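Fold this sequence, please.
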Amino acid sequence: MKRIDIINRINHYLDERGWTPYYLASKSEMVESTLYGMLDSRPEGLPRLESICKVCKGLEISECEFFEFTGDKHLVYVSDDELAWLNIYRDSPEDVAGMLAFKDSVDDKRRVSNKINN
C-alpha cells in the first residue's frame, strides 16, 4: 500500500460526505494537525495504523472497509498479514501493545524474507 492510496481514500470519503478535514478530525477525536499530516503528500512513510483506525471511526466504517475500498480508479492490495492484523485490532482494540508487537513480528519476518530472496 502506498501513502497516496491512503490520501486518495480519505479524500474520496471527504468528498463523498462533503466534509472538511477539520470536521473529520473532530469526529475522529484526533488532533487536526495529525489528519493534515496524513493528507500531506510530501512526507515519507505511511501514517500509523492507530491514526487510520481513528479516521475509520470518524467515518463510521470498519478498517477492513477502508482497506478494501476500490473507488473509481484505485484498488489497494492488503496482504494476508495486514488483514489478519486489522482483524485482530477490530476484535480486541484494548490490546494495542499486543497488536503492535504482532505487527513488528510481521515486519521483521518480511525484512528477513526480503533479505533471503534478494
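The helical segments are 3-17, 21-27, 32-39, 49-59, 63-68, 80-91, 96-117. The chain is about 70% helix and 0% strand.
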